[in-house]
Amino acid sequence: MILHIVGGGPDEFIPSLHHYHGDNVQWIGVDRGVMALLRTGIRPIKAFGDFDSISGQELEYVQSVLDDLDVWPSEKDKTDMEIALEWAVEQEEADLIRLFGATGGRIDHLFGNVQLLAKYMNKRIEIIDKQNVVTVHSPSTYSVLRDEHRYISFIPLSYEVKGITLKGFKYPLTNCHIQLGSTLCISNELIQSSGTFSFSEGILMMVRSKDLGGDF
Fold first, then answer.
1. Beta bridge partners of 198
2. If DSSP codes are grouped into helix, strand and coil, which group holds residue 121?
């Protein structure tokens, strides 16, 4: 099963949700993200949030069409996205979790959402918008397939990431160490249909990006 969580980020950053729909997909709305889902014709199985970013009339509509609405107070110790993601990672049958509406707008929420990926590295979680796919990784070896996201960047989230090795890339590396703040691994590209990256210590974020053009 795949769980898709739609947050309240600006609509212009959210790709076509129907492109990611399927029989094995279940949707979750977070705050204003539930309206984005309903406007698309997708009814989420569950919704979380304080819903302070939608009108009272919109909230009444949401309450009338959804069976499972988890309403939280505005003053709390976690963001609405974290509350929804906590629930999602507890679902053992979920093989992959994707976050939409998690970029654009307020940059504090963007950084918070990236930190959530690091918190739950034991689960496969992606942040997706119209231009980017973001994942966070612990030490291991990973395969990467070439797709419409031409550029691939690797950014350290820990003070140091050790032993980075890139194979099949335009700019290969072997056993390289980079520290927090390094831009050495920004904007690389695959030169083959697939490649691998590996590292031995630290926390590494991979950002796959494309130039905007057309609908996706």
1. 141, 165
2. coil
